[in-house]
Amino acid sequence: MAETMILIPGRTTKQGVGLIESKFKKQYRVATTTVEVNVEDMARLGLKEGGKVKMRSADGVITVKCTGRKAEDLPPGILFIAYGPPTSKLMGKDTAASGMPLSKHLEVELERVN
Amino acid sequence: MSAATETKTEANTKTVENATCTFCGCLCDDMVLTVDVDAHKITKAKNACVLGKALFLSHEEEDRPFALIDGKPATLKEGVEEAAQILTNARFPMFYGMSDTTCEAQRQNVALVDMVGGTIDSTTSVCHGPTGMALQGVGESTATLGEIKNRADLVIYWGGNPAESLPRHFARYAVTAKGMYTPRRKKDRTIVNVDVRRTKSTPVADIFIQVKIGADFELLWALRALVKGRKVAPDIEKRTGVSLETMQDLVERMKNCRYGVLFFGMGLSMTRGRHFNAAAILSLASDLNEYTHFIATPMRGHGNVSGADMVVSWQTGYPFAVNFSRGYPKFNPGEFTATDMFARGDADAGLILAADPGSNFSQYAIDHMKKIPMIVLDPKLTHTAKLAKVAITTSHYGINTGGTAYRSDGVPIELRPCLESKYPSDEEVIRAIYKRVEQLLKAKKKTKSANNKRRKAA
Amino acid sequence: MGSTLRIVNGRVYDPANNVDGKTRDICIKDGKIVKSVPPKTKTIDAKGMVVMPGGVDIHCHIAGAKANIARKLQPDDHRRDVMRRLDLKKINTRSGTGGTVPSTFTTGYRYATMGYTTAMEAAVPPLLARHTIEELEDTPVIDKGFYILMGNNVLLYQMLQEGRHEEIRNAVAWWIDSTKSYTTKLVNPGGDEPWKGHRNATITQLNDKIDGFEQLTPRKIITSMVSAVEDLGLPHPVHIHCNNLGHSGNYKTTLETMKAADGRRIHVTHIQFHSYGGKPDENPTSKAPAIAEYINNNPNISADVGQVMFGKSTSMTADAPLAWMLTRYSSDQRWVNADTECESGCGIIPFAYQEHVYTHALQWAIGLELFLLSKDPWRMVLSTDHPNGGTFTSYPRLIRTLMDKEFRKEQMNSVNQKAVAKIKRAHHMEREYTLQEIAIVTRAGPARILGLKNKGHLGPGADADITIYDEHEDKELMFSAPRYVLKDGKLIIDNHEFKNNHEGKLLHVSPDYDEGIKDVIRPFVEDFYTIKFDNYAVSDNYIHHHEVIPTTK
Amino acid sequence: MSLKLTLKKKPSVPVEAESICPDVMEGLDLKQIAALPLHHGNEQVTVGDFFKVTGKSNGEIRLEGDTSRFKMVGDSMSRGRILIKGSIGQHVGVHMSGGEIIVAKNASDWVGPEMSGGRIIVKGNAGHMVGCAYRGGQVGVTGGEIIVHGNAGNEIGNTMRDGLIAIGGNSGDFTGVGMLAGTVIVLGKMGWRNGAAMKRGTIVSMEDAEMLPTFTYACSYRPNFLRLYLRHLRDAGLPIKDAWINGSYHRWSGDSIALNRGEALIFDR
C-alpha cells in the first residue's frame, strides 16, 4: 500500500557533523537516508522502526530507512529527512523562474519495502 | 592578523584567539583554538558548538593530489592549464558556489567570469535567493544581530530550526543572550516558533504555532490583514490549522512589543510560494512599523554565502544569477541560476568554487554536469569533484586561509587562520586561472582577427 | 625613473593659486605637478581647451552596506544602463551596471570619464567600515575616503552623559584610526534611539532629551563632537546632516545647529534639504536666503548644497526615520530599514523627483537659490548628495544650470509654477557662475574644506589629477565629456576615449590616541556588540594603495 | 511572400536573437539580413550562421525549425508579424509595442514581459512569467494581448497594468499576482494564491479556485464586458463555450491587503 505524503528535507546537526567528516562516510550516509514518519502513519502502513521504505516522486525514487516521530511532533502525512544526495533524486527540474526547484515540499508516495 | 592574539603556550602548541568558525551563517568569532603544531592538528576549540567542534577538531588535511584531471593525479599547473583551456573554449560556462570561501576569492571569481563572458550564481539561489527576489519586490526592514540582542523583546522563528542548523543563535543573538535592554535574557523576551512540525527549536518557544504544511503564505497573509485591521475569511483555521484567536493574540503581541523580529528559514523560501512567502514575511514586518519597530531577517546556512551576495552585488549590481555573455551583467533568476542552466542543458562548461551541487542539485542538473567539462575547487573530495574533469585541491578558508567573510546580517569579519596548508587558497588558484585565460583569450582574439583579415582579403 | 608630461597652451583655472583662465604650462613628474620638466617631454596640446584640477566630490554615497542593499534592491534600475567590459591594450576594464546606484567599477569609471578624481563616501557605520573599504578597493581610478557615523553611537552617549570628554576625544580618535576613515559624520544626532527603541519616533528639537539618556540632547552631541574633532586636528571638521531633514520649518534647526558650533568649524551637508520654511506637515517654503545669509556671514561654516535634480533617484540615508516618512510620498512599494547595533540606522527607498510636483520643484529651486545667493563659493560647494538628490552623473547639467541663466529660466518655466513663483523673480536669479567659480565649487573648494592639500589645485606638489575640457557654449556637454583626464599623471581619458585603468588611493586619517581607551571600549563592545573587540578594528591587511592625511596637531 | 528563416543547425547553447524582429529586418536585403548579429552564448555570430535566409523582407518573418533555444525573438517589436513554426525560447516579444507574434508550438518562460501593445499567440503551452514584469519592476504589461492555447506556468500577468492575457488551459500559482489593472482569463484551473496583492484588475477562471483569505465573496452576476472578451477570444481560436458567455460568475473582491479594488470572477456552474 502506498500513500501520498509531503516530504520535508532539512538540515540536522547529525547531517551537519557528518558532512564535515565526509559525505562518503557512515554518519552522513545514515543521517541522509533515514526518514522520520508519524507513528500513526507508520502503524497504518505497517512500517517498523528501522524498516525500509520507498519514496517515489514524479522525478525519482529512493529507498531509505524509517524512524517514528510522535504525532504531536510530526503531523500525519508529513515526512522529514535530512538533506543529502538521496533527496536530490526526488527534486524536479522546474524552478518556476525562482532559481531552485521545490526542495522542502516534495510530494512523494511512501511505500513499505518487502 | 595581529600578533597579540596568537600566543605560543608550549613548545609544540599555540593558541589562536578570536578566530571565526565558518561553518554556518552565525560566523561566531569567539573561538579559542589550541593547535598542536607538530601534529598539525587543532586539539581544542573553546566556545565552538557541536558543528564548530566537528569542523575544527576533525580537520585533517587529506593527502590528496594537488589536482585531478579525468580522475588522474596531476600537478596544480596542469590543473590550472586544463581549467583555463576549458573556460577559454566554452560559450556558456556556468560559475557556481562561493559560499564556503573568502570574499577575496569571490572577487577574483567574478573578475574571471566577467572576462570569459560566463554566468555566475552562488548557493544563495538554493537557500535565500527567493528572499533576495522578495527584497526586490517589497524591500525589507532588517538589523544587525547585536541590535536584536540588545533590544528585541519579541522574537519569532518561522520555518527554520536554528537549534540544529545554527546552534548558537539562541545564546549569542536572540533568546538567552544578554543585551542592553534585555538584561534578564529570556525573561525579557517572548519567543514564538511557527513551523509545520515540532523541531529541536520548539522547546525554547513560549508560544508554538503549528501551521498546516503549505499554508505559511495564507497565515502570513491573514496576519497582514489583521495588522491592517482588515477581515479575514472565516475558514482561515481550516486552511491554516491556526485559530483566529491565536492569530489575533499574535498580532496584538507584535503590535505592542518594543522591538520585534521575525527570523525565517528555508521553510518559507524553499516551499511552494518561495519568493512570495519571503515577500509576505518581509511585508508583515514592514507593515508592523506603523505600530512599533519591527524587523525580519532570513537565517542563512553557509559560512560566507552572504559574502557571495555582497561581492556579486557590488561588482555587478545584482546579487546572484548574473550573466556576462554580452560583455555586461544581466540578471534573471530562473534563466541564469545554476540549477536551471544545468537542468535545462544550457551550460557547456562549469566552474564550481567551494560548493557541492553534485550532491544537492536535482538529478536532471547532475546528469548534465556529467556531460560537460566541469572544474571544481574544494579542499575535500565531493560528489561534484567525482564527476569533474578537473578537480583542484585548495586549502580550507578560515582554518588555513585568512580573508573576509560576511555574517548573515552583513557584518564583515576578518578570519584568523590557525594552520598552514600545502594547498593553495581558492583565491590563488582563481588568480592563476585568470592569468592563463587572459593569455589564451588574447591569443584567440589575435588568431580570429588574422583569420578575418585573411577571409576579407580572399 | 620618472615619467614626465607637459600640458601646453591650455587656459588654466586654478583658483587656489589665483590663476583665472590664463594660458600656462602644467608640468607633471611621477604623478605630481612640478615646476618644470626637461624640454624634451611628451606634451598634450590643450590649445582652445580649459584645464582644471580633477573634480572632488565632498559628499556622495557610493560604497558600503547601504549602497549595496540599494543595488540589490533595484535590478529594474540597472537593466537599461549597462557598462560593457573593455579590452584595452594594456589592461581590461570590468563591466558593470549604472542607474542611480552603480556597481563599484562603473562608479569609478564614470567619475573619471566626467573628470572627477576624488570622491568621499559620506556615511559608514564603523562596524561596517571593512565592507566599505572592500568596495572602495573595487572602485577604480578615483581616490576615495569615507566618514564614519558617530551621531548615534551608544557608547559615546554613555561617555557624554557622564561628562567623560577626554575619553570621548580618545574614543573618536580610536574609531577614526581603527576604521581607516576620514572624519566623523553626524546624521540626525539623537534620532536613532527613539527610532529603534520607541515606536518609530524621531527627535525634532536640538534641546530634546534623547530616550534612555536623560542628560543628552542633540545639541550636546554636536558640540561635543565639534570639540573632539577640533582637538584632534582632523583635516575635515565634523560633517553634519542636521536634524529634521526634509521637514517644513527645518531651517530653524539648521540655523541653531550652525550657531551651536559657536564659531568653530563645521561642515553642514546637503543644506538644501535643511532650508525649508513653513509649518510641519504642511507644504514647505524657501528659507534659502536666511540660510545663505548666515553662511555668508560666518566663515566657520562650510556647506555643500545637495541639489535636487529631476528624474530617478534613490533615497538612502542613515536617517532612518526620514526614509520612513518618505514612504508616504513614494509610489514604489519598496522600503528598506537596516539598523546597525549601537551605531546607526539606515533607510532606503527608490524615489523620483518630478517637475510638476510642488515640493520637488521647490527643492530644486532652493538648491539653486543657495548657489546663487552664496557669496563665498569656497564654502558653498556643489553636491547632489548622490544618489539622494540626483546622481553624480547629473553634475554637468547642474553646472550648466548655474552658468547659463537662459537655460535656468527655461527650466524654471517648465516646473511647478506655484513652487517657483517668488523665486523666479528674485534678483539673484540673474547671476551666472564663471568658470573660475565652477572650478571652486567642484574642486578647489571641496579640497580645501576637506583639508586635502594636494588636491583641487595645480601648483607644484599637487597630485597630477587634471581634467582638460574642450571649451564649449553648452556647458553640460563640455563638463560631461572632458577631452583628457589624468589621474596621478596617468592618462585615463585620452582624446575622449577611455584608455587606461588605474587604482586610486584610500585617503584616511590616523590620529593619535591614548591606548588606554581600548580598555574603556573593549568591555562595551564585548557586552553589547556581537563581534569580539579584537575583531573590530580594520587590520592593515585591508589597506593596499592608500595615503594617510596628516592631522593639523 | 514573406521572409523565411530556416534553421540550418541547432545551437549548442542558447542564442540571444533580438535581431529577429521586423523592425530590424525591414528594408534589408537577404545578404544584410544574413549578416545581422546573433549571440551564441558569449560568441557573436550572424543570422546566416544559423539560418538559411530566403524570401523577401516585407514585414513578415517566418521561422522554421526547432527554435526552442532562440531567446528574445521580437524584442521591442512595434509592427509586422513573426510566424514561428516550431517552439520558441525565453523572452519572446519582450517589450513589444505592436504587431503580432504567432508561435505554432510551445513558448518558454517570459512571454511578452513588459509589453505595451501588439499581440502574441502561443498555440501550445507557455512557461512561467507570461506577461510579467522582470524582477524588481513595479509595473508589468501595460497593453496588448497574449493568448496561450495550452497551459501556462506561475505568475501570469505579474503586476500588469493594462491589456489582456488569456490562457486556454490551466495556469500555475500566483496568477495575476500584484495586478494593477487589466484582465487575465484562465479557461482551465488556476494554481494557488491567485490575485495576491492585486490592487485593481480582473482575473477570470472557468474552474473553481480557492481564494486567499483576504478576498471576499461579493455576489453572483453576469458581467457584460466578459461576453465581449470571450467572443473576442473565440474569434482568436480559443474553445469558448456558450455557457461561459451566457453564464453567471461569482465575484470575489480583493486583495484587502492592497486596495481591495480587484476582482476574481469564477464561473458558476
Short characterization:
The complex is a heterotetramer of chains A (114), B (458), C (553) and D (269). By secondary structure, chain B is an alpha/beta fold. Chain B has 18 helices and 21 strands.
Summarize the structure in words:
The complex is a heterotetramer of chains A (114), B (458), C (553) and D (269). Chain A has 114 residues and is α/β, with parallel strands linked by helices. Chain A has helices spanning 13-21, 26-31, 39-45, 85-88, and strands at 2-10, 34-38, 52-56, 61-69, 78-82, 106-112. Chain A has a single domain (3-112), classed as Barwin-like endoglucanases, CATH 2.40.40.20. Helix content of chain A is 23%, strand content 35%. Chain A has a six-stranded mixed β-barrel. Chain A is globular. Chain B has helices at 50-57, 76-89, 103-116, 129-138, 145-151, 162-165, 169-174, 216-227, 236-240, 244-256, 266-269, 274-288, 305-316, 338-343, 357-360, 363-371, 383-387, 426-457, and strands at 6-8, 13-19, 31-36, 41-46, 67-69, 72-74, 93-97, 119-122, 139-143, 154-158, 190-195, 207-210, 259-264, 293-298, 322-323, 330-331, 349-353, 374-378, 390-393, 403-406, 412-415. The model of chain B has no long low-confidence stretch (mean pLDDT 94). The longest helix of chain D has 12 residues, at 224-235. Classes of the chains: A alpha/beta (114), B alpha/beta (458), C alpha/beta (553), D alpha/beta (269). The interface between B and D is medium-sized, with 37 and 33 residues.
Number of helices of chain D: 5
- Order of strands in the sheet with most strands of chain C: 8-11-12-13-14-15-18-22
User: Which range best describes the helical content of chain D: under 10%, 10-25%, 25-40%, 40-55%, 55-70% or over 70%?
Assistant: 10-25%
CATH architecture grouping of chain C: Alpha-Beta Barrel
**Regions of chain D with pLDDT < 50 over 5+ consecutive residues?**
none
**Named CATH topology of chain C:** TIM Barrel
Strand tally of chain C, please?
A: 28
Name the assembly state.
Answer: heterotetramer
Biggest sheet descriptor of chain D: 13 strands, mixed
Total individual domains of chain C: 1
Q: Over the alpha carbons, how many angstroms does the gyration radius of chain C reach?
A: 22 Å
Strand content of chain D: 25-35%
Distance between the termini of chain C: 35 Å
Using the alpha-carbon principal axes, give the shape of chain C. Answer: globular
* Helix proportion range of chain C: 25-40%
The largest sheet of chain D has its strands arranged as 5-1-6-8-9-10-11-12-13-14-17-16-15
Strand content of chain C: 15-25%
Q: Round the mean pLDDT of chain C to the nearest integer and report it.
A: 96
Decide which structural class fits the backbone of chain C.
alpha/beta
Distance between the termini of chain D: 47 Å
Number of helices of chain C: 18
